[in-house]
Amino acid sequence: RFLFTTEGDHPDTLKQLLQGLGKQGIFSYTTTGSTLLHICCLHERPLCLGALLDLGLDVNETNDYGETPLHWAAKFDLPVTCALLIANGACVQAEDCDGNLPIHWACEHN
């Protein structure tokens, strides 16, 4: 349900689903450790991203590969999403497991 909601960028629906599940729902992960923030970046859903940030998700949480949501937003050339993440405390110097910063991802993929 979360994936569908974040893919549709419906923050009100997402908030309703998460409120029903409490913190367990908010801190959901994929099989590779990616968070709902990562998924919002993958699918370019800034409204849901903002809603999740308002709920207190860690903007710098990494997946199993050391990738932050900012790495993903940089990879997919999402300047508005990058700005939102940085404004909410995303570390621009965060290194993934290979030592790459978000700016490296932006240069490599765009």
UniProtKB/TrEMBL annotation:
ANK repeats lie at residues 65-97. The keyword Repeat applies. InterPro entries: Ankyrin_rpt, Ankyrin_rpt-contain_sf. Pfam families: Ank_2. PROSITE patterns: ANK_REPEAT. Keywords: ANK repeat, Repeat. PANTHER family: ANKYRIN REPEAT AND PROTEIN KINASE DOMAIN-CONTAINING PROTEIN (PTHR24198), ANKYRIN REPEAT-CONTAINING PROTEIN-RELATED (PTHR24198:SF165). This is Uncharacterized protein. It comes from Vannella robusta. The lineage of its organism: Eukaryota, Amoebozoa, Discosea, Flabellinia, Vannellidae.
